Amino acid sequence: MGFRHSESMPALSPVDDDSSGDERMTDGDPHPHVAPPPAPNVRDAHCFSSCVDLNSMCSSNTSDDESSVVINSSPHRRASAMSPHLGLKKVLVTGGAGFIGSSVAMHLLARGDSVVIVDEMNDYYDVRIKENNLRRLREMCPPEHHLVVYVGDICDEEFMLSVFEAERPRWVCHMAARAGVRPSIQDPFVYIHSNIRGTTHLMELSHKFGIENFVFASSSSVYGGSKSTFFSEDECVDNPVSPYAASKKACELLAYTYHHLYRLNVTGLRFFTVYGPRGRPDMAPFKFIDRVSRGLELQQFGDGSSSRDYTYIDDIVDGIVRAIDRPYPYQVFNLGKGSGTSLREFISIVEKHVGRDAIVNVLPDQPGDVPYTCADVSKAYDLLGYSATVSFDEGIRRTVRWYEDEYVKNICVEPETQANGMGRAASFAEIRSVVAA
Ligand SMILES: NC(=O)c1ccc[n+]([C@@H]2O[C@H](COP(=O)([O-])OP(=O)(O)OC[C@H]3O[C@@H](n4cnc5c(N)ncnc54)[C@H](O)[C@@H]3O)[C@@H](O)[C@H]2O)c1
Question: How many CB atoms neighbour CB 4 within 10 A?
Answer without folding.
Answer: 12
